[in-house]
Amino acid sequence: MIYLVEHFYSIQGEGKYVGTPSLFLRFGGCNMRCEGFGCREKADDGVEVVGCDTVYAVNKEHFAHNWIGISQSVELVNILELYELPDGVDIVLTGGEPLIYANDEIFVAFLEELHKRGHRITFETNGSLGVDFEKHPIYKECVFALSVKLLNSGESYTKRIRGDVIFSLASQSAEAFFKFSIDADSINLALEEEIDEIRSHSPKTKVYCMPVGGSKKEVEKNTEPLIEFCKAKGYNFSDRLHIRIWDENKGV
Ligand code: SF4
């Protein structure tokens, strides 16, 4: 069973394609928790859950009752018909971690249909789960935004940094770029060394750094220190336009 959390048509708010009209499909579930990001969200059962800014798409225990179960690829394809989409508009598959479904036949069939219709498919992934490019060549047509988790996520090094997966996704896909979430307090926590280590697995892949935060206030607090970090290291700064515009509102 595939779980879909939400879908919405908006503009891409971060990374290389910021500003690009995109249909977002957010899938439920993740192989990490990233409690180090410290975002808090109250579930319907009253429990305050700590995690990343999409904790409602990660934590199955407290949020899955709101997720939609998908048992046929046509259910996903039908979502496209709900919107008046321009031809070939970008489709962004995010989460949670969408690649937990990478080998699911329903999921692969959906990707093939999107490609047949001329859409560019971008995965927003933590870059720790590989895909089988030989068995499912559709992945060679996809773009991968590799949001590899850093020390500030609170996840263990071996879980979050998989050099073989990074190399595979970056070298066999249509396109890939790194996208890191960084907050002001973490800038000095040896993140430079970590980013260098991650990049060593795909040195030509471009780096975008974006401010951590699930709210406009948090994003603003982290923006200027991060810009200074990017200037010093030669990385690209990526805003989080959707949060700056719509703050904590979901589905935009
Ligand atoms: S990997 Fe991404 S979606 Fe999963 S918990 Fe971490 S930040 Fe959230």
Average pLDDT value?
94
Strand fraction band? 15-25%
How do the strands of the widest beta sheet line up side by side? 5-1-2-6-7-8-9-10-11
Helix content: 25-40%
Can you give a write-up of this model?
With 252 residues, the protein is α/β, with parallel strands linked by helices. It has one domain (2-246): Aldolase class I (TIM Barrel, Alpha-Beta Barrel), CATH 3.20.20. It contains 8 helices and 11 strands. It has a 9-stranded mixed beta sheet with strand order 5-1-2-6-7-8-9-10-11. It has a two-stranded antiparallel ribbon with strand order 3-4. Helix 2 (73-80) runs parallel beside helix 3. The longest helix has 18 residues, at 216-233. The chain is globular and about 45 Å long. The mean pLDDT is 94. Bound molecules: iron/sulfur cluster (SF4). Iron/sulfur cluster binds at residues 30, 32-34, 51-52, 54, 58, 95-97, 126, 149, 153.
Task: Please supply descriptive tags for the structure shown above.
252 residues; alpha/beta; TIM Barrel; nine-stranded mixed β-sheet; two-stranded antiparallel ribbon; 8 helices; binds iron/sulfur cluster
Give a topology summary.
Blueprint (H helix, E strand, L loop, with lengths): L1 E10 L9 E7 L11 E4 L5 E4 L8 H4 L4 E3 L2 H8 L9 E5 L10 H12 L4 E5 L17 E4 L10 H4 L2 H10 L2 E8 L8 H9 L7 E5 L4 H18 L2 E2 L3 H6 L6
Parallel strand pairs: 2-6, 6-7, 7-8, 8-9, 9-10, 10-11
Antiparallel strand pairs: 1-2, 1-5, 3-4
Helix pairs in contact: 2-3
This protein binds iron/sulfur cluster.
